[in-house]
Amino acid sequence: GFDLDMTYGDALQTCEQLVYGGYSDWYLPTEYELFTMYVYKDNIGGFLTTLSTDYFVDRYYYWSSTLGSITEARALDFNNGSWSWDICNTKYKNYQYSADHWRARCIRKEN
Asked: Tens digits of per-residue pLDDT, 4-50?
């Protein structure tokens, strides 16, 4: 897998438009799916769980697709498992004005 540091809107769009490994049915995980990934993060591998020296580049929060309001989306800290509601400005589906930049891990369901 691979992770990207981006706004909520960019995370949604990237996952929806991703073509990787011959598949195009990728999506941003729900909070339940993301937490399951956290539980099995050591088996899955590749998650950022500690900060580098540049805090503003490497983050250990990951976006979920779960929304709490028109301005907040759920993000999970892969260092300690804590949840956060982060600014994503979903009003009018105008996600590009998100204030927070976190990581995204696109997933797909196996058929």
From this structure: 678 888 888 899 999 999 999 999 999 999 999 999 998 988 877 66
**Rounded-to-integer distance, Cα 98 and Cα 41, Å:** 26
Cβ atoms of 72 and 85 within 8 Å: the answer is yes
Q: Is the pTM of this model over 0.90?
A: no
Measure the CA–CA gap between 24 and 15, rounded to whole angstroms: 9
- Long-range contacts formed by 17-21: CB under 8 A, 24+ apart: 18/106, 20/106
Task: List CB contacts of 55: < 8 A, sequence separation 6 or more.
Answer: none
CA separation for the pair 67, 86 (Å, rounded) = 9
Point out which residues pair with 102 in neighbouring strands: 6
CB 68 within 8 A of CB 83: no
Secondary structure class of 12 (helix, strand, coil):
helix
